[in-house]
Amino acid sequence: MTPLMMAIIAFSAVLLRYLVGGPECLDTIQMYDAWCKKNWWLNALYLQNFIDTNNMCLSHSWYTAVDFQFYLVTPLIIYPLYRDLRWGALIWLVFFVATSVLTGIITATQDLPPVPLITKAIPETVVNNYSSMVYIKPYCRMGPYLVGMALGYILFRTGRKIVLKTRYSLLGWSLAIVCNTLVLYGMWPAYEGKLPSNLASAMYSALARTVWAVGLAWLTFACTVGYGGFITTFLSWKAFIPLSRLTYSAYLVHPVAIAALYGVQELTVDATYSYMMYLIFGNLVFTFIVAFISSLFFEFPFTGLENVILKKDVYPITK
Fold first, then answer.
1. Cβ atoms 33, 11 nearer than 8 A
2. Alpha-carbon gap, residue 109 to 244, rounded angstroms
3. How far apart are CA 178 and CA 16, in angstroms?
4. CA gap 4, 251 in Å, rounded
């Protein structure tokens, strides 16, 4: 993860300002230009979600820090699970309760919204507080990661050989759809200005991401053990493989490309549906072109080195 991210940071801090121009150019690329000059070292140490978060270089890269921090904590759960299910499950439960309760307490005591809502009903300072205190912190983000660990353990122990009756398979799909639908549309009234109570905000903030992960975990489980049907066929389409190998690079690159586009824009435009669709698909195609070039020069070579050092196929296509 690190070489590609640092290469994009170096480009943003040194070269980006010379490749774009416009009346708002330096303002729109500030977090990739000035902030990266100042705080690039925090990204190298994966501490950008704890130190000087208001001036985070590649502000969307908070998740790389969270992911790395989870990776450091993982052995505390995985090893006990591997040795003794009872102790491992207890430790897993302690982490789950801790992350859920802590997220709810922070949201409630600080009068924060359930999600970083972009609405006139919530001051911008409150939204920023939610982002810095909850949204980018690992101890508020571990619920989905724990769900993934539990699913991985189940698939590992069972060897993916699980037989379910039809009614249980249908029940699983139904519950997954309900979980993800409730999470997706649960805050619809809030975006219309009808803010939830403090208790409802705390509960949603504490559990929504985990509930969403449960729905995705069932999708993964069902497709892996043979209960996914046409969904498995679609998600296994080999055309997705080349794009899947570019997703990390696209994730790092796309906000920089979008900010540069906004910076060079000299005229106001009408945000019509056709224009927005043009922007969306234009940004998408441009992002993956740049992602391919970035991966070719900075990600794939290090993947190859890892392959040689660890003597394994890092990107197996088939078993």
1. no
2. 40
3. 44
4. 11
Question: Which tokens go with 222?
Answer: 């069902």
Taking Cα atoms as reference points, which of 157, 161, 162 lies closest to residue 82? 157
- In angstroms, the CA 8 to CA 16 distance is 10
pLDDT digits (tens, 9 = 90+) for 113-155: 998 887 777 888 888 899 999 999 999 999 999 999 999 999 9
Average pLDDT over residues 171-196: 91
Distance of CA 183 to the CA centre of its chain: 16
CA distance 127 to 135: 10
Burial group, residue 155, by CB count within 10 angstroms (0-12, 13-18, 19+): middle
What is the rounded distance in angstroms from the CA atom of residue 95 to the CA atom of residue 101? Answer: 10
Q: What mean pLDDT do residues 153-182 have?
A: 92
Q: Which amino acid is at 178?
A: V
66-113 confidence digits (pLDDT tens) = 999 999 999 999 999 999 999 999 999 999 999 999 999 999 999 999
Q: What residue type is 6 in one-letter code?
A: M
